[in-house]
Design a protein that fits this description.
The protein is an alpha/beta fold. Helices cover 32% and strands 20% of the residues. It folds into two domains: 144 residues, Leucine Aminopeptidase, subunit E, domain 1, CATH 3.40.220.10; 305 residues, 3-Layer(aba) Sandwich (Aminopeptidase), CATH 3.40.630.10. The strands form three sheets. Strands 7, 8, 9, 10, 11, 14, 15, 16 and 18 form a nine-stranded mixed β-sheet that branches. Bound molecules: ligand BES, manganese (II) ion and zinc ion.
């Protein structure tokens, strides 16, 4: 484990400690000084162009570069030459540094022999108790995000629904949160026909994972987070072709994020009631798999035309969104790697946000910017309703007759049929995080799961 240590100044340092410096330019430099000490100077482009977003990736670049040089111990000063960050105080700098150092330090090493890890990162110039608190908070958050990246990165044959549930139980230990797991029998009793339908072809049974954290009076209406927990998405009988199936063990990233967010709400002792619901199953292929043309009856009682077994995420989410009713929530947010179409629409640098509420959209966009888990909106207008009308059922899981436009929105519109029956004033938002399921090079994160949007959900839990 890499330690992050705040120090007030860096006048005396251990011999093996590498100093981090900045310079304008494109290439980082490793400099051996005449006194035997070493400096790693990080290329920051033009100082005047560095903003909050680029500062995050620059913090990550420090760690990534240090790792390639197999550095064990390094020291970073909180003083910086970036004029755009002048309005941000030391507390923000320290928190942002610590969080991004740890996120960049993570790699999925379960199957690697070579596990070089930075031993310690010293952040120098930390004076106030407030800055120290920001550091502690960042460490708690980033550590949890990295744990969830481990859950997501674990191969699909290993990370079964029951193992995911076990991890949720482990992760809440010692916190004020509680985990309840429904097995297949209980899921049947709860009439979650859509979740059961998707799970039908899999050898490993489905689980419905419930996390409850009551940080306020139980009378206070909670926030419910719902996360897609498809432990592997083969597509089902509408099997994925070409390379499309690779990385589909990450199709439970939304579920992992929801688990992480509830655990964090508990660890940060938020004075809120936060519930997490994760419908978990594999979307497998067998003679008993869900068939295209099947009609499912989920918990809501609405009938669902399954026109494509690969649109399974919205099916399992529909039952969880209905189940959320029993909590009489004031806000419901679902998070899912739902559509490839969201990548077509937005590229790979933000998740798609869909909500019918203008105020929620505005708040979430701001919190996205603040957390580093960026969002961009797509509409959920009535105009789009026509495309998912059922043939024989009430609603279809994809548009009929090959209509191929607006796939991310169609997913959101489908879910909107099930995000109902909540108390008056309860808001709902859908986050299609497929664009952020895996990292891209410019993120300066390890290959694989990003751990998004846990930081965002944590801010939503705290502020909404
Ligand atoms: N899990 C996939 C979506 C996905 C694709 C996530 C690529 C991340 C990267 C989802 O279950 C799926 O298969 N969606 C289909 C929907 C289609 C059948 C309407 C898709 O996007 O092709
Ligand atoms: Mn699918
Ligand atoms: Zn899927």
């Amino acid at each position: 484990m890499t330690k992050i240590t705040p120090i007030s100044n860096s006048k005396t340092l251990p011999k093996d400690c590498v100093r981090i410096a900045w310079h304008e330019g494109e290439e980082s430099k490793y400099i051996e000084q005449q006194d035997g000490s070493t400096t790693l100077s990080i290329a920051a482009g033009k100082y005047k162009d560095v903003n909050v977003r680029t500062f995050r990736t620059l913090c990550r670049a420090i760690v990534r570069t240090a790792k390639t040089h197999k550095i064990d111990r390094l020291v970073v000063e909180i003083e910086h030459p970036f004029p755009q960050l002048e309005t941000h105080d030391a507390t923000w700098i320290v928190g942002t540094m610590a969080e991004n150092f740890l996120l960049a330090n993570y790699t999925y090493t379960a199957y690697k022999k070579d596990k070089h890890d930075i031993k310690e990162i010293l952040i120098s110039g930390v004076q106030s108790a407030e800055a120290k608190k920001a550091l502690d908070r960042a460490v708690v958050i980033a550590t949890e995000v990295n744990k969830c990246r481990d859950l997501a990165n674990t191969p699909g044959s290993i990370m079964t629904p029951s193992l995911l549930a076990e991890h949720a139980k482990q992760m809440v230990k010692g916190t004020g949160a509680r985990v309840t797991v429904f097995d297949k029998k209980r899921i049947e009793k709860e009439r979650m026909g859509a979740l059961l339908g998707v799970g039908r072809g899999a050898k490993h049974g489905p689980r419905f994972i419930i996390l409850e954290y009551y940080g306020a009076s139980k009378k206070e209406a909670p926030i419910v987070f719902v996360g897609k927990g498809i432990t592997f998405d083969s597509g089902g009988l509408n099997v994925k072709v070409g390379g499309a199936m690779l990385d589909m063990h990450l199709d439970m990233s939304g579920g992992a994020a929801v688990i992480g967010a509830v655990v964090l709400a508990a660890k940060l002792k938020l004075k809120k009631n936060i519930i997490g619901l994760v419908p978990a199953t594999e979307n497998a292929i067998s003679d008993d798999s869900l068939h295209p043309g099947d009609v499912l009856v989920g918990r809501s009682g609405k009938t669902i035309d399954v026109l494509d077994t690969d649109a399974e995420g919205r099916l399992v989410l529909s039952d969880a969104l209905t189940y959320a009713q029993i909590y009489s929530p004031r806000l419901v947010v679902d998070v899912a790697t739902l559509t490839g179409a969201s990548l077509v629409a937005l590229g790979e640098h933000c998740s798609a946000l869909m909500t019918k509420d203008d105020a929620v959209r505005e708040t979430f966009m701001k919190l996205g910017e603040e957390s580093g888990d960026y969002l961009w909106p797509l509409p959920l207008w009535d105009e789009y309703k026509q495309y998912i009308k059922g043939r024989f059922g009430d609603v279809a899981n994809i548009p009929a007759s090959g209509y191929k436009w607006g796939g991310a929105i169609n997913g959101g519109m489908f879910l909107s049929h099930f995000a109902e029956g909540y108390p008056d004033g309860c808001k709902w938002a859908h986050i299609d995080m497929a664009p952020r399921m895996t990292s891209v090079a410019s993120d300066k994160l390890a290959k694989g799961a990003t751990g998004e949007p846990i930081r965002l959900l944590t801010l939503i839990a705290e502020r909404y």
